[in-house]
Amino acid sequence: MRFDRSISIAISALRREPDAGAIAILMYHSISSRPESAGHPYFRTATSPARFSEQMEWLAEAGAEIVELEKWNSPAATGKSPRVIITFDDGFSDFLSDALPALNRHGYPSTVFLPTAFIGTGKELLPGTKHLAWGQIEKLSAAGVTFGSHTARHLPLATLSRREIYVEVETSAESIEKHLGKRVISFSCPYAYPQAHPETLSALRDGLRNQGYTVAVTTKIGTVSPEDDPLSLRRLPINSDDDKSLFLAKIRGGYDWLGRAQQFVRHAKKTLHL
């Protein structure tokens, strides 16, 4: 039995309605049916096109208010409908072929985060998984898709010096701005958010502010509220294993407990020097 699924669905059933003002930022990666080696569903990052299409339908059925990331803290249109933001990490080309059609059917906005060293260079973050080309990105941007930075080289930030972090957040934004002629103000942190590395977090925050970013999302789990730190927003990981019950539980705050549990475990390990 998948315990995180059972607990999340149970919590969601007890809550029935999302917290007032809560926003679910969905974190997608590849929209494809590629096989994954990760054992537990929690660690998988691919969402099949069929399942993604279903998930967009479930949002519509739930009457979800789909919000642009850059307007994440804007007032809610209603007090009862779940509020959702749709994001994609890594800039894979399957966003164009397999995610965009479903998004367009519903008129849903989205943000795609680009690791710019992999765009237009032939390099692949995942072997066999292509990235969007700059020409495609330019057309998508003109059609209303928002693009943000996912650093340049997509490296774990905790392994980098302060100067290297500055370069990653600066050069990636500059590259996107050069091609799109638009200011880049959104950022997605690659890999696990370095909560246990205060010097890394300090460098990242300084780099984001200096470059002019106004919103940054992380891999920390949970929904967010308008009062949260705009440079450290939580998200909800989504993949093919998110069936209707679990998917709706996540957007209604039923998965937030896992983020709090992970934070408690990290704090305990740091306190006990484990």
Word description of this protein:
- The structure is a single chain.
- The protein has helices at residues 3-15, 49-61, 94-106, 134-142, 162-180, 198-211, 244-251, 256-272, and strands at residues 23-28, 30-31, 46-47, 65-66, 83-89, 111-114, 146-149, 186-188, 215-221, 233-237.
- With 274 residues, the chain is an alpha/beta fold.
- It has a single domain, classed as TIM Barrel (Alpha-Beta Barrel).
- Strand 5 (83-89), helix 3 (94-106) and strand 6 (111-114) form a beta-alpha-beta unit.
- The two termini are 29 Å apart.
- 41% of the residues are buried.
- The mean pLDDT is 93.
> What is the level-2 CATH architecture name?
Alpha-Beta Barrel
Distance between the termini: 29 Å
For the residues shown, what is the average pLDDT? 93
Helical stretch count?
Answer: 8
Question: What number of domains?
Answer: 1
Strand content: 15-25%
What are the secondary-structure elements, in order, as H or E? HEEEHEEHEHEHEHEEHH
Name of the CATH superfamily:
Glycoside hydrolase/deacetylase
Catalogue the unreliable spans. none
Biggest sheet, open or closed, and with what strands and sense? 8 strands, parallel
The overall strand count is 10
- So what's the CATH class? Alpha Beta
Morphology call: globular
Rg estimate, integer Å: 18 Å
Helix share bin: 25-40%
Q: Structural class of the secondary elements?
A: alpha/beta
CATH topology: TIM Barrel
In a few lines, what is going on in this structure?
39% of the residues lie in helices and 15% in strands.
